[in-house]
Amino acid sequence: MALDPYTIIGFIGALVIMVGFIMNQLGRWKTYDFEYDFINLIGASILAVYSWQIGSYPLLLMFSVWTVFSGKDVLVDFFKQIFGKKTKENGVENKAEKKNEDITNEKTVVNEKTLEKDLEKRHDVAGDENVTD
Fold it and tell me: Three-state secondary structure along 30-72?
């Protein structure tokens, strides 16, 4: 049984996508890592070409969109490495770290406001008790 060139291209694209998926599932790559984005860009591009060659337009649409978004992430990651903000661990500020920092800051502000209101209530109650005494 001989495989035609289009089927071989499809297998290559699928294997490339699966490498990214497996590395993510094993915890070696995060979804915001350059390697993950790059491997998705390559695999989705190959599968978009394969879909076009076999005339599967729904898959062509899906893999074209996948390619565009993976390409955007690769460019963002690339420019962050060149011009981006530095962190201690990997030299580049990533999306997850920024999101966690934002959430922590929001929680701190909310906790401070709640504490201030609680202290005001206690002060008001204590003040009222002093007046009645």
Answer: CCCCHHHHHHHHHHHHHHHHHHHHHCCHHHHHHHHHHHHHHHH
Residues contacting 40, CB < 8 A, separation 6+: 17, 20, 66, 70, 73
CB atoms within 10 A of CB 50: 22
- pLDDT tens-digit profile of 82-114? 887 654 445 445 565 665 665 665 666 666 667
**In the numeric block, which tokens belong to residue 31?**
């979804």
Q: Please say if the pLDDT value at position 31 is more than 60.
A: yes
Structure tokens at 65: 């969109």
Cα–Cα distance between 34 and 27 in angstroms, integer? 14
Half-sphere exposure of 93 (CA within 13 A, CB side): 9
* Max CA separation in the chain (angstroms): 99
Tokens of 110: 């909310």
Model confidence, pTM: 0.62
Radius of gyration of the chain (CA): 26
